Amino acid sequence: MKKVFFCAVALMLGATMFAQNVNHELQLGIFNSSEVDQIGDDNHSDVTQIGALNTSDVDQLGYDNDSDVIQIGLNNDSTVLQDGNDNESDVFQIGADNQSNVLQDGNDNYSNVNQNGTGNISDVDQDGNGNDSDVDQDGDGNDSMVSQTGDDNWSEVTQDGNNNDSDVTQIGDGNESYVTQDGDDNISEVTQDGDDNYSDVMQDGNDNESYVTQTGDENESYVTQIGNDNDSDVTQTGFSNWSDVNQDGNNNDSEVTQVGAYNWSYVDQDGDGNMSDTDQYGLGNGSIVIQNDDDNYSHVLQVGLGNFSYVEQGGVSLFGGNSGENSSHVHQLGAGNISIVRQHELSLFGTAPGNISVVNQAGLGNFSNVNQVSIGL
Fold first, then answer.
1. Beta bridge partner(s), residue 275
2. Which of 229, 285, 331, 365 is deepest in the core (most CB within 10 A)?
3. How many CB atoms lie within 10 A of CB 217?
């Protein structure tokens, strides 16, 4: 009987020894501060601080959570709160005055934050299970906010430059967002409310703005901005809508609104000062807008089923000057309507007048084909 009792005690002590929390701290420098609170079993925390006036706060509540914080420099601040099981957070800060806040509420969430520079801010809030966030900031004054509510959402934010701003909000399950900002003073906002939506935003330049709002399921958006002061707004509401916006130049403006299902839009702007507005309501409508050179304008409105619009605008000036300035308006209401508009300018010194086209079609299976070329000195 005594042998059985001692064996039971040994098993209990062994379980206690192996089911324990682990905390490692290394501080080199002056006035660094680290606080770690662990409640539960098998939680693991590593904190390394090298420099001065760095602050780290780690709170772990649950089981098998893992946190790794490395701060090198001056006056960096990191806060990690893990409430649940099997969450993982990695924070690496090098520089001065960087700030990182990570909140994980649920199970199996993963967050990775890398900050290199001065005055960068990252906020990651994960509420659910199996969410994944990766934030990389290289430069000064960058700001990233990631909020994930639901399960199995993915967000990746890369900021290389100064004073870039990225906000990602994901509500639902299986949403995916990628944001890449290379330059200064770029703004990106992505909101996904539903399941299995996809967004990819790439900004290369300065003062570009991109806004993507997806409400529903399986919507897909791509935005590429190369240059300065470009603006893109994409709103998708419904199911399986698709949008691709490419802006290469300066001061281009694109707005895409799609409500319904299986609508698709492609916008390509190459030049300066072009403007495109595409609105599609219904099922299976498709739009292509291609604008080359400068100051072209396109408005496409399609309401109904299976309508298609193609707009191509541009100009060629052989010896300089401003070519472009074409204007196209396409309005289609009904089903199976098709509109094709091609407008071009050809001149020696950019003095050809701009073309104007207005197409209005209502009904079933209408077809319009417009080709215009203006010629000038």
1. 253, 297
2. 285
3. 18
| Contact status, residue 69 vs residue 80, Cβ threshold 8 Å | yes
CA–CA dist 188, 47 (Å, integer): 32
Tokens 């509500």, residue located: 171
Structural domain boundaries in the chain: 197-377
Distance separating alpha carbons of residues 95 and 76, to the nearest angstrom: 8
Q: pLDDT tens track of the chain, all 377 residues?
A: 333 333 333 333 333 334 689 999 999 999 999 999 999 999 999 999 999 999 999 999 999 999 999 999 999 999 999 999 999 999 999 999 999 999 999 999 999 999 999 999 999 999 999 999 999 999 999 999 999 999 999 999 999 999 999 999 999 999 999 999 999 999 999 999 999 999 999 999 999 999 999 999 999 999 999 999 999 999 999 999 999 999 999 999 999 999 999 999 999 999 999 999 999 999 999 999 999 989 999 999 999 999 999 999 988 767 665 666 899 999 999 999 999 999 998 877 666 788 999 999 999 999 999 999 988 77
Nearest Cα to 249, choosing from 230, 234, 221? Answer: 230
128 class by beta-carbon count within 10 Å (0-12 exposed, 13-18 middle, 19+ buried): buried
Ramachandran category for residue 172: left, alpha or beta (phi over 0 → left; psi -120 to 50 → alpha): left
Structure tokens at 190: 């992505």
* Residue whose entry in the numeric block shows the structure tokens 């909000």: 169
Q: CA-CA distance, 196 to 342, in Å (whole number)?
A: 36
Which tokens hold the place of 114? 């890398």
Please list, in sequence order, all residues whose beta carbon lies within 8 angstroms of the beta carbon of residue 189, skipping any fewer than 6 positions away: 166, 167, 210, 211, 212
